[in-house]
Amino acid sequence: MQFIQIFAIIFSLGVFIGIVDLIRRGMLKEQYAILWLVSAVVLLGLSLWRELLHLIAALLGVAYPPSLLFLVAFLFLLLIVLYFSVIISSLSERNKRLSQEVAILKTLFEEHKKTDNKQ
């Protein structure tokens, strides 16, 4: 077993255990952890099953099959960043809409308060 394969296995297991621990402690919601867990499992599978790694590397034209692991990891990270960008954009829009609604309600409340004081 090569050093790079051992490193990839340890790294994949570390990511998997770390994500499970973050979920267990309530620091990461399950819906956001799915991509992380899937990426750790795929990397672990490719790290352990060398024949599959070599087959995929040959199909993609990658000269050094273990470097395919890092390509897969990079692509998963890219997907995760894209996913979180979509979520942040959605939350930003909802936050803007909520602050506008609060401002409208505050204005209406202050107007109602002024009319009650005049009576």
Commentary on this structure:
The chain is mostly helical and 119 residues long. The protein has one domain (3-118). It is built from four helices and no strands. Helix 3 (50-60) packs across helix 4. The protein starts with a helix and ends with a helix. The model has no long low-confidence stretch (mean pLDDT 89).
Rg of Cα set: 25 Å
Order of helix and strand elements from N to C terminus:
HHHH
Query: Could you say which structural class the secondary elements and strand pairing correspond to?
Result: mainly alpha
**Uncertain stretches of 5 or more adjacent residues:** none
Beta-strand residue fraction: under 5%
| Average residue pLDDT | 89
Strand segment count: 0
- First-residue to last-residue Cα separation: 86 Å
* Integer count of domains: 1
The outline comes out as elongated
Q: How large is the count of helical segments? A: 4
The largest pleated sheet is described as: none
The amount of helix comes to over 70%
List descriptors:
119 residues; mainly alpha; 4 helices; 89% helix
List the helices and strands and how they pair.
Layout: H1 3-24, H2 30-48, H3 50-60, H4 65-118
Helix pairs in contact: 1-2, 2-4, 3-4
Concise summary:
The chain is mainly alpha-helical and 119 residues long. The chain contains four helices and no strands.
